[in-house]
Design a protein that fits this description.
The active site is at 131 (proton donor), 134 (cysteine sulfenic acid (-soh) intermediate). Helix 3 packs antiparallel against helix 4 and helix 7 (115-129) packs across helix 9. The longest helix has 28 residues, at 149-176. The chain has a single domain (3-176), classed as AhpD-like (Up-down Bundle). 75% of the residues lie in helices and 0% in strands. By secondary structure, it is mostly helical. The protein is built from nine helices and no strands.
Length: 177
């Protein structure tokens, strides 16, 4: 499967998504690695096998094995962190904010790619998973490392479009069943 076949799988009512997927995957201010790493991490976080497989098929030719692995690692670690830190943020008891997480997160310190790229991918997954605490933390780190607000916005645009395509295809799958 490819991006073109993904577009073809979308119903007519999702025409905007067909147009947006092409434009967000050529976002200015991002490197090809940043774009496709974001796409991979977002597709995994979106939890739709058709979207995930299409993105992975294209990204494999555009990313080094190390970058592909790091994008998958960002989706994995943020899948854990977003749940934990969303709980900490939303729980009424303030005690949780002072307690150590006691969760291994070694990949964040040594992801195998440039730290800003890994942070961008972590931000995309955090946006999909709706963890405000993680969004704030990653956005802060990305800015501190020198990325622009436009680059950050473009990463979140990629995540939003990929997630919307996954939601649309899941809706179509459910209706067909």
């Amino acid at each position: 499967m490819s991006i073109d076949s993904l577009k073809a799988a979308l119903p007519d009512y999702a025409k905007d998504l067909k147009l947006n997927i092409g434009s967000v995957l050529t976002s200015p201010g991002l490197t090809e690695q940043q774009i496709w790493g974001t796409a991979v991490a977002s597709a995994i976080a979106a939890r739709n096998d058709v979207v995930r497989d299409a993105i992975l098929a294209e990204a494999t030719a555009k990313l080094s094995p190390e970058a592909l692995n790091a994008a998958k690692a960002a989706a994995a670690i943020m899948g854990m962190n977003n749940i934990y830190y969303r709980f900490v943020h939303l729980a009424s008891a303030a005690d949780y904010k002072t307690m150590p997480a006691k969760l291994r997160m070694n990949v964040i310190a040594n992801p195998g790619v440039d730290a800003v790229d890994f942070e961008l991918w972590s931000l995309a997954v955090s946006a999909i998973n709706g963890c405000g605490m993680c969004i704030d933390a990653h956005e802060h780190e990305i800015v501190k490392k020198g990325a622009t607000r436009e680059a950050i916005q473009n990463v979140v645009r990629i995540a939003s479009v990929i997630h919307a395509i996954a939601v649309t295809l899941e809706g179509e799958r459910a209706q067909a069943a």
